[in-house]
Amino acid sequence: MESVQDIIKQALLAGHKTLSEYDSKKILAAYGLPITREVWVNDPAAAEAAAAQIGYPVVLKVCAAGLAHKTEQGLIEVGIKNAGELKAAYARLAAHARQLEGGILVQELVKGSRELVMGLTRDPQLGPCVMFGLGGVFTEALEDVCFRVAPLDEEDALEMTREIKGRKILEGVRGLPPVQLDLLSRGLQTLGRIGLEHPAVRAIDVNPLIIQQGRPVAVDALIVLEKPPAEPAEAQGVRGGLDKLFEPQSVVVIGASQTPHKAGNDVIQNILANEFRGELYLVNPKGGEILGHKVYPSIQDLPQGIDMAIIILPAAATPQTIRDCAAKGVKAVVLAASGFAEVDQQGKTLQEETIQAIRETGVRVIGPNTSGHTSTPHNFTSSFFPLGKIPRGKVSYIAQTGNFATHTMRYIMSGENYGVARVVGMGNKLDVEESELLEYYAEDPETQAIFMYLESFKRPQRFLEVARRVTRSKPVVLLKGGATSEGARAAVAHTAALASDDRIIDGALRQAGIVRVYKYSHLILAAKAVSAMPLPLGNRVSFSAPSGAMLVCMTDLCRRHLGLRVPDLEEQTRQRLQEISPPYIRMRNPVDIWPAATVSGVEFAYREGTEAVLKDPNIDAVVPILMLTDDTGVPPLDFLVELAHRYPQKPIYVTFSAQKKHMDAAKAFLEPRGVPTFPLIEEPFEVLSILARCRQAMNRK
Amino acid sequence: MESVQDIIKQALLAGHKTLSEYDSKKILAAYGLPITREVWVNDPAAAEAAAAQIGYPVVLKVCAAGLAHKTEQGLIEVGIKNAGELKAAYARLAAHARQLEGGILVQELVKGSRELVMGLTRDPQLGPCVMFGLGGVFTEALEDVCFRVAPLDEEDALEMTREIKGRKILEGVRGLPPVQLDLLSRGLQTLGRIGLEHPAVRAIDVNPLIIQQGRPVAVDALIVLEKPPAEPAEAQGVRGGLDKLFEPQSVVVIGASQTPHKAGNDVIQNILANEFRGELYLVNPKGGEILGHKVYPSIQDLPQGIDMAIIILPAAATPQTIRDCAAKGVKAVVLAASGFAEVDQQGKTLQEETIQAIRETGVRVIGPNTSGHTSTPHNFTSSFFPLGKIPRGKVSYIAQTGNFATHTMRYIMSGENYGVARVVGMGNKLDVEESELLEYYAEDPETQAIFMYLESFKRPQRFLEVARRVTRSKPVVLLKGGATSEGARAAVAHTAALASDDRIIDGALRQAGIVRVYKYSHLILAAKAVSAMPLPLGNRVSFSAPSGAMLVCMTDLCRRHLGLRVPDLEEQTRQRLQEISPPYIRMRNPVDIWPAATVSGVEFAYREGTEAVLKDPNIDAVVPILMLTDDTGVPPLDFLVELAHRYPQKPIYVTFSAQKKHMDAAKAFLEPRGVPTFPLIEEPFEVLSILARCRQAMNRK
Fold it and tell me: Rounded to whole angstroms, how far apart are CA atoms B66 and B73?
């Protein structure tokens, strides 16, 4: 596209920050986007000729580089009917045009009651992002827009047209023809291409994009330019070798301590408690022995070729220690110290020196400012928060917080009965960051579901690229901290997070198949559910409740807020439910279970009722709401464990309307046997909603 | 408004279901609503004269009674510039007009890029309801509309203009003048008045209502008529006398049973366990003695003038038993039996007979199909689900479900440490219903907050009228079951609920100051919070967390999802926080508490940090997120109890990032001492959001 390059080059040379409407549209047209028929003119006679050629009514606009908000400035005359009107309008606008060193645009009048907007913006982290939404006066008023990161494929673009709240106007409303979605989709993809091919294009507005007999036409457009910033020369850094972190054969703790409750002691206790089977070395200038292990006085005294070092020393010692380790052939280090860029200017300098040491040595690094990482299949943790033996499981965490190696893990271990495979608290992520970890987890047979807490993306494009692949085979759930301005402020204080426009993040995550959550607790509850149970095959739920009010409320919740369906049952299922119930009640989904419990006993009713819906092909997941009180009777709950084994395709999540002691007992019985329970009645449905969205992402084209 | 009456009468006589646009607008104009200038004509010459008088450009429309969707049918010509165009347009439309037995409307062309809609609909339960929202093609596409029940006051109407998502277009966007809200507000109020004054008006559409230089003009309008249905002759029924239900001096159980675990026995056990201080009588044909109380063989054998009877007999015996009780001077009864209209046709007949008996006797009745009611200040319950001693508290429930007298109460008693004042499970609410109970609770000094679960409104207008008053002095929280179509289906099965358009309900509840919740659990958690702590004075929260990620996530949650503010602190507060923290961290709200805990100890940090923000005038509520693990140390928590006493204006809600056993211990220690705890980190914020909205309702004009 020679001409496009030329237009941009000329404008930059002339020092223009925005292209004129005419030039902006020339670029769009060069890329095949439908624009208004229009002619640039410099005298009244040319204007008249152009109008005659285009056909009345026409629009006259002042057109100049650097000109935006023409309507507000009165620089447009709409609906000019004839030569007489044209003359008058031209005379008025020409004065403005001269002043702005521009010309006049004679343009066809595009009629249509549906105004859309599409655009492009260059996100500092994600690069060119395409926008789509309602246009005209509604763009700012409703902010009904969505984003995707370039490049967009057809499905990305079509998804955008389904994502806006006003999507119905794209259909044939009020006797209007439906919008040609293929054209819309092509337009959105094209904008992304322009952004990728022309780094000097800072932003594009196509607003309004008017729908004329179903076809979108760019009626006005604005392209904003900017000298492309020099690509930050990102040190590629070494990649690979994460197995030295997750499966070390030998580990050294540098800064090992005799003193209980000090990090340099706790980390050793943790390693021993987790029954690490590799070699464990300790370093402390004092020498001697700690917990039965010999202490080397210095790194220099260590044998050559230890896989990993856990460095528990003051921040200032970090760069030299990395070099010393590398000299001894250490492949990976965990940096516990804080006091780097997250603190002050001095820390920033130290961080730069640390980066330098990492680059020079090629050592792989977690941290600094990390609370450690865990790899249960390898019986290993570098956490220096006392945890004891961490249970092994099939979910893995990537966390831009130390919580999952410390108190949150403590809560999980003590309050929820599930284990983990890999956990990394990334700290300041000078080296190892989320995209590489995600890739590692993707290939990791031990990891069946991935949960993340992130406040920033270090290599956003790489991250999304990896995520796009991973999410087709494993559930990936993300809590993104720092979403609101106040949240983002707190984020700056916490690490050194760059806040990104939340709408862009939202679009990027959807595009990548990542399921976004907004509650910290969901990183725990959904992980527990997917640890114990299969991922649901869809969003169709059946639940049984001991109360009509609960049937009603949970149905409302599923449909209104959670995107879950509570579908009709097969006739056969219905009949089975009817068989176990008294005749006066007409059974269906959701299942009003208590009448059956009254006539046939609590265990029988829940067992038969649950099995009936588990068998039903219309149902993807089942939630029994157990009533457990002294007086109504507390049945043995083995039947739930048996049903879970018998129907391994369908998750069963248990919740309660019960006495607290029976809830606790049921949890203590069921969870170690693989059936997750949830104290609050809404929780299993919230979790199901998250996991059903994961499944949807896995199923996408 | 003679003419309005006439127009409607004529149309009804002519059998018209809708008025013509011309007549519809005449009615609007008679009520002072601004409409387009227009003339009804029947020949081309008159059309030309009208157009000349109005001034070109004009619009020509076919106008006839019973005509809707003119645009889609091509019955409008917009933007006619001159006599020539007028002639052609007239000729084309006149043919259609003749066919429809109508005429032609010559109308000014109203220009404006903002199209709104207002309207009126007659809700079967709530009567005339006014709608407002985005108009034109967006009415259906965005469904960005809201409702209020007539009559509307000015504040109701203004609230509607703030409630729609597109409210920004009412401001001065894109160089347009702001919409004159006083005119909009007057228009909305007027529509309500029309609905109230003309029962034959079934619905009104004013669409589009175009904004012309800031003034709304009705450009098209449609009034739908319907012969007003005869007002259902609602038997007024007796009112008052609820004190016999809540404070009975004497009670008789009819259907008392010897057999443990039967309702007729459990109810006696409950009454005894609650230490009822009035007289207790029992009736059973077998006579004898039950639990030390003499059993009368029949109602006839009872002494005269017992306050209340709890009737635990088969449904069929109900009407006669009511009459027998009344004959003995009983003032109130509780009907436990189910098997009425909620079951089948036979039950419906029985229900009619029961209503008859209630009307004849004037006895006040809870039920049938109720699981009972509770009044702890009077040491009384009629619940026949074994509960034991029910703790006394200051929240009261109105429930269209038996749960709060049965298993949910069991959960509250065993799992949450709060008590109740009054609880009514209304059952089929043949007599006592929510509006009267709400009124009773409003006056009840024992009730400080009201929580409701409703699936239908028996006297909706009365209910809203009462609620409008009550909500100015007490928090009123409602979970409305049956909101979605699937939910509503379940509702039909449950009682015999009439589902109402959820948007109308939503508007009506806001109008009445009732705070709507969507989670069943919130009826418990918010009640617990308000039982222990004062109602927050506003929505400004401070919280302290042991983790940056939690600071970030909870700030996001408060701002994005919960309508809470996390404001800046006074400088004095900030200084105090800085004093207790290491210098490298800059303290603010939310409070990053762990560095202080590290240097000064966990108890000191949380105590001083919590007190500092409690003192801050910018803060209405405080949430300490406690880290409690064996290794970081578990401090005594008395300080929280002391702070709660010292700052009685500000609620403190506690949550955790902790080991389960310490969470449980903290709950067991704090809750009986008046400090509520919440196991999931998001719960205190969700509860605060609900209660801050209650406060907002109480503060409204």
Answer: 14
Q: Assign residue A698 a region: left if phi > 0, alpha if psi is -120 to 50, beta otherwise? A: alpha
* Interatomic CA distance for residues A101 and A355, integer angstroms: 51
**Cross-chain CB nearest to B490 (options A141, A415, A555):** A555
Q: Predicted ipTM?
A: 0.93
Say which residues have a Cβ less than 8 Å from residue B275's Cβ, sequence separation at least 6: B379, B389
Beta-carbon separation of B138 and A169 below 8 A: yes
Which residues in B lie closer than 8 A to residue A210 (C-beta atoms)? none
The answer to whether the beta carbons of residues B511 and B149 sit under 8 Å apart is yes
Give the amino acid at A502: D
Are the beta carbons of A97 and A117 closer than 8 angstroms? no
Nearest to B660 among A176, A401, A415 (CB): A415
Could you tell me how many CB contacts below 8 A there are between chain A and chain B?
265
Evaluate whether B473 touches B698 at the Cβ level (below 8 Å): yes
E-strand ranges in A489-556 read 515-517, 541-545
CB B261 within 8 A of CB B377: no
Chain B residues whose beta carbon lies within 8 Å of the beta carbon of residue A479: 553
Sign of CA dihedral A15, A18, A22, A27: positive
Say if residues B258 and B290 touch (Cβ distance below 8 Å): yes
- Dist. CA A257–CA B600, nearest whole Å: 23
pLDDT digit string (tens) for B378-436? Answer: 999 999 999 999 999 999 999 999 999 899 999 999 999 899 999 999 999 999 999 99
Q: Which residue of A has its CA nearest to B72?
A: A175
Q: Are B676 and B532 in contact (CB under 8 A)?
A: yes
Cβ atoms of A274 and A380 closer than 8 Å? yes
Residues of B within 8 A of A661 (CB-CB) are 414
pLDDT digits (tens, 9 = 90+) for B324-359: 999 999 999 999 998 888 888 899 999 999 999 999
CB contact under 8 A, B483 and A455: no
Best CA proximity match to A278, nearest among A296, A255, A251: A251
| Three-state SS letters, A645-694 | HHCCCCCECEEEEECHHHHHHHHHHHHHHCCCEECCCCHHHHHHHHHHHH
Rounded CA gap, A294 and B80, in Å? 99
Question: No. of H helices and E strands in chain A?
Answer: 24, 29
Domains and CATH numbers, chain B: 37-108 (3.30.1490.20), 115-225 (3.30.470.20), 243-530 (3.40.50.261), 534-699 (3.40.50.261)
Closest by Cα among A321, A429, A454, A323 to A368:
A429
Measure CB to CB from residue B141 to each of A168, A385, A408 and give the nearest one. A168
Structure tokens given for B265: 């026995």
The helix, strand and coil proportions of chain A, stated in percent and rounded to the nearest 5, come to 40, 20, 35
Residue in chain B closest to A625 (alpha carbons) equals B407
Contact B415 A584 (CB under 8 A): no
Which two tokens mark B67? 């005509």
d(Cα A363, Cα A289) in Å, to the nearest integer? 28
Please give the model's pTM, rounded to 2 decimal places. 0.93
List the structure tokens of B612. 């500092």
Residues in chain B: 701
Q: How many CB atoms lie within 10 A of CB A235?
A: 11
∠B518-B524-B525 over CA atoms, to 5°?
90
Which two structure tokens, joined as six digits, stand for B413? 């008693």
Greatest CA separation for chain A: 102
Query: In this complex, which of B487, B553, B631 lies closest to A552 when CB atoms are compared?
Result: B487
DSSP 3-state of A294: strand
Find, among A678, A562, A559, the residue nearest to A623 by Cα: A678
Average pLDDT over residues A307-314: 97
